Amino acid sequence: MATTSRSTKRADAARNIERALDAAITCLSQRPNATMAEIAKEAGIGRVTLYAHFASRAELLEAVVTRVIEAGERTLSGIDLDGDPRGALTRLITGSWQLVDQARSIIAAAEGEIPPERMRALHGSPAARVEALIARGRQEGSIRADMPATWQVAVLHQILHGAGAEVAAGRLEPNEAPGLIITTVNAILDPH
Q1: Which CATH number is associated with domain 57-189?
Q2: Farthest-apart Cα atoms in the chain, separation
Q3: CB of 156 within 8 A of CB of 133?
Q4: What's the pTM value of the predicted model, to 2 decimals?
Q5: Angstrom distance (rounded) from CA 43 to CA 41
Q6: pLDDT tens digits for 11-32?
Q7: pLDDT for 36-53, tens place per residue?
């Protein structure tokens, strides 16, 4: 009987965590400064329960960013990166922009509370995909090789997030961003 009780408690805890993460994504997508109380209310759980699973807003934000990046990874892993590296990079940028656009409020909330080095670590897998593609383009001569590949990846990342900030500020339409991002990145990476 004790095992059944523990299993039920674990299942309840897992459901509460899922509800909290879903609620955090909903709330933070609408308001990057959503409070723990608002998130708990959206999840249909008490603040004490929320704090039992996430000791701080920063801890909750890290879990949310992890979830969003993992979902993004599933999407990005389906993008064809074969063939011409510049064409593959264009496809990857388009797919990445859609994810950044969907998660820009969550990213804005996280950047204020999660240290930059931790944000970089959370973005490690997407960055590795871009870095491998840039390395292939450099080797084939379609991407300039006179600057570090890590710099090129960092600049691409900043351009994506900068476009998100411009959209959030109302200075750029979301549907215009991919073309501008691709044009900017191509100008920076062009070996000629």
Answers
A1: 1.10.357.10
A2: 72
A3: no
A4: 0.75
A5: 5
A6: 888 899 999 999 999 999 888 8
A7: 999 999 999 999 999 999
